Each structure stands twice: as structure tokens, then as C-alpha cells.
Automatic annotation (TrEMBL):
Functional summary from the UniProt entry: Part of the tripartite ATP-independent periplasmic (TRAP) transport system.
Keywords: Cell inner membrane, Cell membrane, Membrane, Transmembrane, Transmembrane helix, Transport
Keyword match Ubl conjugation: no
Stretches that traverse the bilayer: 24-43, 64-88, 108-132, 153-177, 189-213, 234-253, 297-323, 335-368, 415-443
Broad class of the protein's primary localization: membrane
Protein name, per record: TRAP transporter large permease protein
GO molecular-function terms, A-Z: transmembrane transporter activity
Classification lineage: Bacteria, Pseudomonadati, Pseudomonadota, Gammaproteobacteria, Pseudomonadales
Domain of life: Bacteria
Source organism (scientific name): Marinobacter fuscus
Length: 448
């Protein structure tokens, strides 16, 4: 059988299994392993011989898994995840929310804006949008509802705030994208800073306009007295989170750290702060390590599966056939880019962000690279699209996490109704990133 036919069937099978909600790691490893065996065993013009395909297929699986796991740059993933869990247990992440909440308490919509900053800081430090939606949803949503906030505004704010961690470093999506496309993770982190700032600024504008047009949806508290001393104390509480962000962004931009070194320094700082401030107990530390081990193992299993899948795609030559097909259509660059954007938006409605990215990169990157597009800029576009997919109906993961946290009193469609208002801003920011690549490339291109 022709290898390209096997490759096409393999990709189609993987997509079908993912739509059937089979875990992505099993899909990637299973489909790639079986189809690689078939490719080696059933060569064009000959019969299927199982023994002929077994040894090379096993060698492909073994070598890819071993080489990937032993990658030095991969060590930043457990370090960042561990630093995020420690930061949560030491209340570094929640202090961001508390600090902004005090400063904006009298402002209409102030609690919602504080939630955006809290969620953005939490998801950036932990690198997990879903963890942010789960944890901050328990803190921010009840607080806003207690002060009479509209249910749509309260829930959609936290759902959207959790997506900010995809762009603001450290982002697991950027790390995986960088490893699979052989791009600098340092530059990817820095490329996400300005788009991340644009996004959170747009979200704040949505909240402010919402509060102005419908003041009863975001009433300003009247019975709270906040002094300058309270504001000063709140600002001081936020310094550990700012230090972590400075280590990552400032350290990388200044050439002091690589991304992996920044991850190690962040972990040491978080643990040191927790011990000195007596916020980190031995039980919390062990719990953080267990959570880190579980999350890292899950990510590594997915990443290894993706690496094997990429090798299988390369083996069958289906990527070359796909690139040739796209070139044969004679489309302009903007038309190809439009199709790619549409592809990610549609897949993001049904698949999780990591699965969408790892499944499509083997096909999309050769097309983008062949058309002369910058892969650092394209990485930001992809991550922004994946960020949008986290809240896009009908299967926006962040929305369902928020729904599970707040309980049955608030329906899923209520959260989606609020999210749509923010999605308008997301699409505008996406259009700006696509139309003006300098937004993404300004900071990484100015590195010393």
C-alpha cells in the first residue's frame, strides 16, 4: 500500500478517535505505532508481512521516545509546573487578586477587573488555564456574586481570564510549540508579552463598557472603607508574584537566564518564599510535588505520542503530499492563513488545545515555512487561536470547568452568553496580531 494513503488514513483515524473523546496520548501513540507497523510491513507492490514491519516500527517508537524524554529543554516543564503549584499553596497567586481588588474596590466593575488580573497572574505562573479556572473560580465568582454582580459577568470574566496564561509566559503551549518546531522558547515567551497585554486590556474595556451600560450588573460597593494604608499593604502583598514575572520576562529579555534556568530560579524562589514566610507546610510541599508529577507525566505521555506521530507522518510522506496539494491550489498567502485560522477555530470547538496543536503542526508548519512566514510570529497566532478555543462553544473547556465549580445554579449557556462579549475582543486582537506581526516580534527582535 502507498505510504501516503496509510498516512492519510492514520490522520483521519486520529481525528475521529479524538472527536470520540479518546484520550489524546492513547490516540497519538496507538495510531502512530499501528500505522508505522503497517507502513513497514506493507510496502508498495508486495504483500503484508507482519515480521518485516515489527522491528523497524519498534525501533522508531523506542528512539523517538528516548530522545525526546532526554531533552534538556524539556526539564523546564516540570520546573514551571512545580513553581506554579508552590505559588498557589503559598498564596502568591491569590495575593494578586487581593491586591487589585483592594485598589479597584470602589470602581464599577472593579471586582471583575481584579478577577481578570488575578486569573491572568495565576494562569501565567501556573501555566494552566484549566487549573486557573478551577481554583480562581472558587474565589472570584462567589465574591462577585456576594456583591450583587450579574451571573454572566462574574462567570465569563473568570473563564476568559484563565485563557491569558496561554500567551503570558511561562506557557506550556509555547514550550511544546518551540520543541516541535525547533524555535527558541525564549523568543516565544517574549513574543507573547505584547499580545497578552493587548488581550487583557481589551478584556478590561469589555468589563468597563458592560459596567457603564448596565451599572446594576456590576454595582460599586458602598459600605467598604479602604484607606491608603490598606492600599499600600495590598500592593506590598503582590511583590512575590511580580518578582516571579520579572525573573521570567526580565531575566530572559536581559540575557541573564535561559527559559530552563528561569524555571529553576522561579521554583527556588517560590519554595524559599514559602519557607521564610511560613506559608508552605511540609504537607503542601509534598502535595505540590505529587500534583507536579501527575501533570508532568500526563504532558510527557502526550508529547512522546506526538513525537512518534510526527515521525510516522514524516515516514509516510503525507506532509509533502499535503504541501504539494496546497501549493497546487495557487492560493495567496492571506488565503492560506485564513484557512489555517478557520481550521484551528473549528478544531478548538471540539478538541483540547494541546491535542489540536500537536495533531496539526506536522501539516501546518511545512506550509507556513514554505510560504516564508515567521515561525515565532506564527507560534503566537497558533497559541492565540488555541486560547480562543478554550472558551468557544460548544465544548469550551474553561466554561465547563467554571460550571462545575459554581454548581447547578448557573447554567452553561449563561456563561457562554457572557463569554461571547469577550470573544469579540479576542477576534480583534487576533486580527491585529495577524495583520501586524511586529506586535509579536518587537520584543524578541530587540533582545541583546
Amino acid at each position: 500500500m502507498e505510504p501516503t494513503v496509510i498516512g492519510a488514513w492514520g490522520f483521519g483515524s486520529a481525528l475521529f478517535l479524538l472527536f470520540m473523546r479518546v484520550p489524546i496520548a492513547y490516540v497519538l501513540v496507538g495510531v502512530a505505532s499501528i500505522c508505522s507497523l503497517i507502513t513497514y510491513a506493507w510496502r508498495p507492490g508486495s504483500d503484508f508481512i507482519f515480521e518485516r514491519g515489527l522491528r523497524p516500527a519498534l525501533a522508531l517508537i523506542e528512539s523517538n521516545a528516548f530522545d525526546f524524554i532526554h531533552s534538556y529543554s524539556l526539564s523546564m516543564i516540570p520546573l514551571f509546573i512545580a513553581a506554579g503549584h508552590i505559588a498557589y499553596h503559598t498564596r502568591i497567586t491569590t495575593d494578586i487578586y487581593e491586591a487589585v481588588r483592594v485598589w479597584l474596590a470602589k470602581m464599577p466593575g472593579g471586582l471583575a477587573v481584579a478577577s481578570l488580573f488575578g486569573c491572568g497572574g495565576f494562569s501565567a505562573i501556573t501555566g494552566s488555564s484549566l487549573a486557573c479556572a478551577s481554583s480562581m473560580g472558587r474565589i472570584c465568582v462567589p465574591e462577585m456574586l456576594r456583591f450583587g454582580y450579574n451571573k454572566q459577568l462574574a462567570t465569563s470574566t473568570v473563564a476568559m481570564g484563565g485563557t491569558l496564561g496561554s500567551l503570558i509566559p511561562p506557557s506550556v503551549l509555547f514550550i511544546l510549540y518551540g520543541m516541535f518546531t525547533e524555535q527558541s522558547v525564549n523568543k516565544l515567551f517574549l513574543a507573547g508579552v505584547l499580545p497578552g497585554i493587548l488581550t487583557i486590556t481589551g478584556f478590561i474595556l469589555v468589563v468597563m463598557v458592560w459596567a457603564i451600560l448596565k451599572p446594576h450588573h456590576a454595582p460599586a460597593p458602598k459600605d467598604i472603607v479602604i484607606t491608603n494604608r490598606d492600599r499600600f499593604r495590598a500592593a506590598v502583598k503582590g511583590w512575590p508574584a511580580l518578582m516571579l514575572m520579572f525573573i521570567i520576562i526580565g531575566g530572559i529579555y536581559g540575557g541573564v537566564f535561559t527559559a530552563t534556568e528561569a524555571a529553576a530560579v522561579c521554583f527556588v524562589f517560590a519554595v524559599g518564599f514559602g519557607v521564610i514566610s511560613r506559608r508552605l507546610s511540609w504537607e503542601d510541599f509534598l502535595g505540590s510535588m505529587k500534583e507536579t508529577t501527575f501533570q508532568t507525566a500526563s504532558l510527557f505521555f502526550i508529547a512522546v505520542g506526538a513525537k512518534i506521530f510526527v515521525s510516522f507522518v514524516s515516514l509516510t510522506g503525507v506532509t509533502g503530499a499535503f504541501v504539494g496539494f496546497v501549493e497546487g491550489l495557487g492560493l495567496e498567502t492571506w488565503q492560506v492563513l485564513f484557512c489555517i485560522v478557520l481550521l484551528y477555530i473549528v478544531l478548538g470547538m471540539f478538541l483540547d488545545s494541546i491535542g489540536t496543536m500537536l495533531l496539526t503542526l506536522p501539516f501546518v508548519i511545512p506550509v507556513v515555512e514554505g510560504m516564508g512566514m515567521d515561525l515565532i510570529w506564527f507560534g503566537v497566532v497558533v497559541v492565540k487561536l488555541l486560547e480562543i478555543g478554550l472558551v468557544t462553544p460548544p465544548l469550551g473547556m474553561n466554561v465547563f470547568v467554571i460550571n462545575s465549580v459554581v454548581g447547578k445554579d448557573i447554567k452553561v449557556h449563561t456563561i457562554f452568553s457572557g463569554v461571547i462579549k469577550f470573544l469579540t475582543v479576542d477576534m480583534i486582537v487576533l486580527a491585529l496580531i495577524v495583520a501586524f506581526p511586529i506586535i509579536s516580534l518587537l520584543i524578541p527582535n530587540s533582545m541583546g
